[in-house]
Amino acid sequence: MSRKVIITCAVTGAIHTPSMSPHLPVTAKE
Fold first, then answer.
1. What is the pLDDT of residues 1-30, one digit of tens each?
2. 3 state SS for the chain
3. Exposure string over 1-30, b if 16+ CB within 10 A, otherwise e
């Protein structure tokens, strides 16, 4: 028997880079 799955996604349409904000984490430690 197959299971029904619902996949959702909330795309913001914006790309942020570290040069845009010092508060954007880059590594897992940050």
1. 789 999 998 877 677 777 888 887 888 888
2. CCCCCCCCCCCCCCCCCCCCCCCCCCCCCC
3. eeeeeeeeeeeeeeeeeeeeeeeeeeeeee
Planar angle of CA 21, 27, 30, nearest 5 degrees: 70
Task: Answer for the pair 21, 30: CB distance below 8 angstroms, yes or no.
Answer: no
Q: Which two tokens stand for residue 1?
A: 């028997």
> Among 10, 7, 9, 30, which Cα is nearest to 18's?
30
The predicted model scores a pTM of 0.31
